[in-house]
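Listing S7. Sequence submitted for prediction.
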Amino acid sequence: MKLRKVTAASAVLLALSVTATACGGDKDDKGSGDGKKITIGIKFDQPGIGQKTPQGYAGFDVDVATYVAKKLGYKEDQIEWKESKSADRETMLQRGDVDFITASYSITPERQKLVDFAGPYLLAHQDVLVRADDTSIKSPADLNKARLCSVTGSTSAQNVKEKLAPKAQLQKYPTYSACLTGLQNKAIDALTTDDSILAGYASQSQFKGKFKLGGLKMTNENYGIGVKKGSDLKDKINKALEAMVSDGSWQQAVDKNFGPAGYKNESAPKIGEIKS
């Protein structure tokens, strides 16, 4: 009889344990704000997009991610920011290093095989940044004679070699900041990536008047928020993005981060609408 009582009690404890785990132990079940923190991947070196500064983190992606996190139930002091370099983003999501990534992350068929995307939340275009006195690059074809810099793992580098300028002397650096140094020193002729990123660099006070956008609009870059494959965060983030557009916060973030460079942004894209 005693054995039956112990066994029954154990069964009750086990049931309670399983119930508690089911209610609160799923690491992927974000969005209630019950967790102590949420980890978000951003770029640390892209002015206007995502940048780590002595004062904290700034940029359009940071503002978007902060808004989304708030809608998910997290305050700013509950956000842990983690650097997400272009070549590392899929791996970070697959390993669970971050809950989601907002890092000028273009949605592509190849990436969609590895991770899921909420959005898009911004339509950018591939362009070039050149020195202000350079008039040699007026079309994508001119890049075939140029020393061109982009970042390892970015879609920009792939587009140039495969479609736009196969004869360009393409140099891949680990960060856009490194490319910018090469542009300043005349080690390269142009830096290519999304016009939103380039506008961020051009708008910095120390670079005003030194660089200019080429205005080539070579591709469409649909920025999405990356999440782990199958994550229930995708739908929650999409709802947050729709709210950000409808209440005016999206346009405010655009004006705040891109306005100084005179960047002419596209209208906010509709969720799920990918422009090729």
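Caption to Listing S7: primary sequence and predicted structure tokens for the chain studied. The chain has a mean pLDDT of 87. The longest helix spans residues 2-24.
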